[in-house]
Design a protein that fits this description.
This protein is an all-alpha fold and about 475 residues long. About 80% of the residues lie in helices and about 0% in strands. It is globular, with a radius of gyration of 21 Å.
Length: about 475
C-alpha cells in the first residue's frame, strides 16, 4: 500500500512535470495574439512574421526524437533540468530581443529546450507511475494540461500583450522554468537505460536533420507553394536523410531508435493516430483566432478570453478520460474522442461571416474540447503500453514527434486549402473580405474534420482491442506497484 508521504511526493512531482509541459505546449500558441505588436516593434516583414511561431515549431519537432533518446541514455532528470534552463534563458533573451533575427534565434532555442523537456517529463511520468489505474490518473492530469495549453496560450497571450506588452509572453516563462529546475532534484529520482551507454551519433544527426527539414518544408509550403522547386527540394532532402537514418539504424549495434519498439502493435497504431490528432487540432486554434479577429472583429484580449471555456472544458474532460480508460479501455475512449473532435470541426465548417461567438464558436469548441480530452489521454497511454522502462523516453519522444509533425502538416494543408478558397472567392467577384475569408476557413475546418474521421477509423483498425481490454482489467484490479519519486 502506498504510504501518505509517498502519495504526497508523487503528487508534487506530477504537479511539477505537468506545469512544465503546460508551459511547453502553451508557448507554441501564446505568441499568436502578440504577432501584430511584435511586427510593429521589431520591424518584421509580413512574410517573416510567421517565423516567430515556425522557429519554435521547427526545432521542437526536429529534436524531439533525439531529446527522448538522450533522456533514456544520459538521464531523464538531467535532461529535464537541462531543457528547463535552456528554455528559461532563451525566453529571457527573446523578451529582450531588439531585432527580428534576434527573436527568431531565441524562439529556435526555446524549441530546442522544449524538445529536451517534453519527452523527458513524459518518460518520468511513465516510469514513476505503474501501468494501470495509477498511471491512468497521472496521464489524465498530463493530458489535461497538454490539451489546455494551446487554448490557454491564446488566452494568456491576449492578457499579457494588452496589459504588459508582447515581451511578457516570453519573459513569463523564465521564473517558472527556473523554479521548476530548482525543485526538480528534490522531487524527481534520476533514471536511465542502464543496458546501453553508447550514443548513435550518425543516427542522431540524420534523423534530427531529416525531421527539421521535414517540418521546415511543411510550414514553408503554404508560402512557397506545394509544387515549387523550393518545397519539393526541401522535402526530397528530408526524405533522403530519413531513409539514411533507417539504413544507419538497421546496421548499428546501439541504434538511436531500436526498430524493435515497433513490434508493439498498439504503439504503432497510437503514433499513426497521434499524427492525425495533431493534423486535426493544431490548425484549429490558428483558424479560430483568425476568425475571431479578422471576421468577428475581436480585439486581442477579447479573442484570448473567448478561449476560456474551451480551456476549462479540456481540463475537465481529460480528468474524466483517465477514469473512462480504466473502465472501458483506451481504444473505445480514443474512438469516442476522435468522433467528438470530428463533430466539432464539422460544426466549425459552418461558420458564418455575420456569425456570433455563441453559435459559431462556443458550442462547437465545447465538442472539440471534450474530444480533445478524450483523445490526448488514451493515445498517450496507448503509445507507452507494453514498453520496457528503458524505452520510455524513446516512446515518449516518438509520440511527441508524430503529434508535432502532424500539427505542422495539418496546418500546411489546411492553410493551403483556406488560402486557395479565399483567392478563388475574390477572383469570382466577391468584394467583402469577411465573406472570402470565411469561405476559406470553412474549407479548412472541413479538411481538419476529415483528419479526425480518419483517426477514428484507424483507431478501430490499428490499435489492439486485446491490449486495451487487458490494460483496463489490470487497472480495475489495482495491479500497481509503488515506485518512489524522491529518495
Amino acid at each position: 500500500m502506498t504510504e501518505p508521504t509517498e502519495v504526497r511526493s508523487k503528487g508534487l512531482a506530477l504537479a511539477l512535470l505537468a506545469m512544465t509541459q503546460f508551459v511547453v505546449v502553451l508557448d507554441a500558441s501564446i505568441v499568436n495574439v502578440a504577432l501584430p505588436s511584435i511586427g510593429t516593434d521589431l520591424d518584421f516583414s509580413q512574410d517573416d512574421l510567421s517565423w516567430v511561431v515556425n522557429a519554435y515549431t521547427l526545432t521542437f519537432g526536429g529534436f524531439l526524437l533525439l531529446g527522448g533518446r538522450m533522456a533514456d541514455l544520459l538521464g531523464r532528470r538531467r535532461m529535464f533540468i537541462s531543457g528547463l534552463i535552456l528554455f528559461g534563458v532563451a525566453s529571457l533573451l527573446g523578451g529582450l530581443a531588439q531585432s527580428d533575427a534576434w527573436l527568431i534565434a531565441a524562439r529556435a532555442a526555446q524549441g530546442l529546450g522544449a524538445a529536451l523537456i517534453s519527452p523527458a517529463a513524459l518518460s518520468i511520468v511513465t516510469t514513476t507511475f505503474a501501468e494501470g489505474a495509477e498511471r491512468n490518473r497521472a496521464l489524465g492530469v498530463w493530458g489535461a494540461v497538454a490539451g489546455a495549453g494551446g487554448a490557454a496560450g491564446v488566452l494568456l497571450g491576449g492578457v499579457l500583450t494588452e496589459y504588459l506588452g508582447w515581451e511578457w509572453v516570453l519573459l513569463v516563462n523564465t521564473p517558472i522554468t527556473f523554479v521548476a529546475a530548482f525543485f526538480a532534484p528534490r522531487l524527481l529520482v534520476e533514471s536511465r537505460d542502464e543496458r546501453e551507454s553508447s550514443f548513435d551519433i550518425p543516427g542522431a544527426l540524420s534523423v534530427t536533420a531529416g525531421l527539421a527539414l521535414l517540418v521546415y518544408g511543411l510550414v514553408n509550403a503554404a508560402q512557397a507553394g506545394w509544387e515549387s522547386g523550393e518545397t519539393l527540394g526541401i522535402l526530397a532532402c528530408a526524405l533522403a536523410l530519413l531513409v539514411a537514418f533507417v539504413a544507419i539504424e538497421s546496421r548499428t549495434k546501439h541504434p538511436l531508435m531500436p526498430f524493435s519498439i515497433f513490434r508493439l502493435r498498439t504503439l504503432r497504431g497510437a503514433n499513426i493516430v497521434g499524427l492525425l490528432v495533431g493534423m486535426s487540432l493544431f490548425s484549429m486554434f490558428f483558424f479560430i483566432s483568425l476568425y475571431l479577429q479578422q471576421v468577428l472583429g475581436y480585439e486581442p484580449l477579447k479573442a484570448g478570453l473567448a478561449y476560456l471555456p474551451l480551456a476549462v472544458l479540456i481540463v475537465v474532460s481529460a480528468g474524466g478520460a483517465s477514469q473512462l480508460v480504466t473502465r472501458i479501455g483506451f481504444k473505445p475512449s480514443l474512438v469516442m474522442g476522435m468522433v467528438f473532435i470530428a463533430a466539432g470541426l464539422l460544426w466549425f465548417s459552418r461558420v458564418s461571416p455575420d456569425g456570433t461567438y455563441v453559435g459559431d464558436v462556443l458550442f462547437p469548441s465545447m465538442l472539440v474540447a471534450i474530444g480533445l480530452g478524450f483523445s490526448f489521454v488514451p493515445v498517450t497511454i496507448a503509445a507507452v503500453t507494453g514498453t520496457e522502462p528503458g524505452e520510455a523516453g524513446l516512446a515518449s519522444g516518438l509520440l511527441n514527434t508524430t503529434q508535432q509533425v502532424g500539427g505542422a502538416l495539418g496546418l500546411a494543408i489546411a492553410a493551403t486549402v483556406a488560402n486557395s478558397t479565399t483567392r478563388d472567392a475574390f477572383a469570382g467577384g466577391e468584394r467583402n473580405p469577411a465573406v472570402a475569408l470565411t469561405e476559406g476557413f470553412q474549407d479548412a475546418f472541413l479538411v481538419c474534420a476529415g483528419f479526425a474521421i480518419l483517426g477514428a477509423v484507424l483507431t478501430a483498425v490499428l490499435i489492439s482491442s486485446k491490449d486495451s481490454r487487458e490494460h483496463a482489467e489490470a487497472a480495475r484490479r489495482g495491479e500497481v506497484e509503488v515506485v518512489p519519486i524522491a529518495g
